[in-house]
Amino acid sequence: METPAFLDRDRPDVPDLVVPGGVTPFYLQGRPVRGRLVRLGVLTDVLLTRHDHPNVVNRLAGKALALVAGLASALKFQGAFSLQIKGDGPVTMLVADCTDTGALRFYARTDDDALDALLQDTPNPTDRDLLGNGYMALTVDQGPDMERHQGIVDLAGDDLAAMATHYFSTSEQHACWIYLCCTMTNAGWRAGGLVLERIAGEGGTHVVGDEDADASWETATILASTLSTKEVLDDALPSATLLHRLFHQEDLHVSQPRALAYGCRCSRARLANVLEGFDTDDLDHMCQDDGQIVMTCEFCNHDFRFPRKDIAPRSA
Ligand SMILES: [Zn+2]
Predict the structure, then answer these.
(1) How many helices, marked H, and strands, marked E, lie in the chain?
(2) 266 CA to middle of ligand 1, Å?
(3) Is residue 60 within 8 Å of residue 191, measured between CB atoms?
(4) Tell me, what's the pLDDT at 11?
(5) Which one-letter DSSP state was computed for residue 19?
(6) What pLDDT was estimated at residue 300?
(7) Is 36 helix (H, G, I), strand (E, B) or coil?
(8) What pLDDT was estimated at residue 10?
(9) How far is 22 from 70, CA to CA, in rounded Å?
């Protein structure tokens, strides 16, 4: 049996950081609209700077983290909600996930030559320039005994928010309005966003073409469009105040905010278990001159060192 995280003394020395109120859920009473305002605050800087990516990749990754935080907090599940994008652009792979308790992590893989070439021509690339053509998958993983729910769509649109909106309109037939931002501020990297979802009207019925509902949804998206990056990323501006600014005429109800946290779930015990699955030849091949095997967690960029002599293959 795997060592539970709280008993695992060999977890890496990564920041134990919680941002209270990182996600603020809300709904507009009597209207087919609910949403979440997401603000990662200082967590953005801590998550992004564990890696050594160029700024353009950090901006994309910060938006991906805000997106998974904003989507996961709408679901009832236990486990991890993940975004995975695989494309033919300079960012070949982007993975971000958020657990039911708000623990966030990500990794990105890049083709550095292709990225340099892109930045030569296009100093301010769009998310799409970075990702190219490919697909986006959203997965709810509730552990080995539960069925995984996964939806996959082709990448469409110039930015991550458009790609996610496209995902919901095609894969889930669910109207969403999504805004994402990430930038370097005086206080460090900051990311956030706003997700609006069109939900069934009161009584659980949504009549297509219901003019009042259509108008209410449209009004909410127009108000949401007035949101600025500066407001979302301003640590000193409370989330409830910001939501009130946007929706005070729409019978806004702000629900209990939820925390976000630094959330790598790697552990020495888990990686040792992976190593024990290799055979002797593979282990010898992985072993460095100093007699150690180094495994790096892609999510938190932590190097785990295992003396080769301590690893015995299960198959032997
Ligand atoms: Zn890790």
Answers:
(1) 10, 13
(2) 4
(3) no
(4) 59
(5) E
(6) 86
(7) strand
(8) 58
(9) 10
Cβ burial of 210 (10 Å; 0-12, 13-18, 19+) is middle
For position 173, what pLDDT does the model report? 78
Which residues have a Cβ under 8 Å from the Cβ of 193 and sit 6 or more positions away? 37, 38, 63, 66, 67, 70, 161, 178, 179, 180, 181, 232
CA of 274 to the centre of ligand 1 (A): 14
Pair 198, 176: CB distance under 8 Å: yes
Cβ neighbours around 75 below 10 Å, total: 12
pLDDT of residue 16: 74
Residue with tokens 């729409």: 250
Looking at residue 1, its pLDDT comes to 47
Residues counted in the chain:
316
Looking up tokens 């958020």 gives: 98
Alpha-carbon span 26 to 165, nearest angstrom: 19
| Ligand 1 midpoint to CA 145 (Å) | 23
pTM of the complete model = 0.89
For the chain, list the strands marked E by DSSP.
18-28, 33-39, 80-87, 91-99, 103-110, 134-141, 149-154, 176-185, 188-198, 252-254, 258-262, 292-296, 303-307
Distance 312 CA to ligand 1 centre (A): 23
Q: Please, is 52 exposed, middle or buried when counting C-beta atoms within 10 Å of its C-beta (0-12, 13-18, 19+)? A: exposed
> Ligand 1 mean position to 70 CA, how many Å?
22
Closest among 54, 53, 19, 22 to 37, alpha carbons compared: 22
User: 176-185 and 188-198 as β-strands: parallel, antiparallel, unpaired?
Assistant: antiparallel
Chain mean position to CA 30: 30
CA of residue 140 to ligand 1 center, whole Å: 20
The H or E element that residue 26 is part of is strand 18-28
In DSSP terms, 150 is beta-bridged to 139
Low pLDDT (below 50) residues in the chain: 1, 203-205
Of 165, 163, 188, 177, nearest in space to 84 by CA: 163
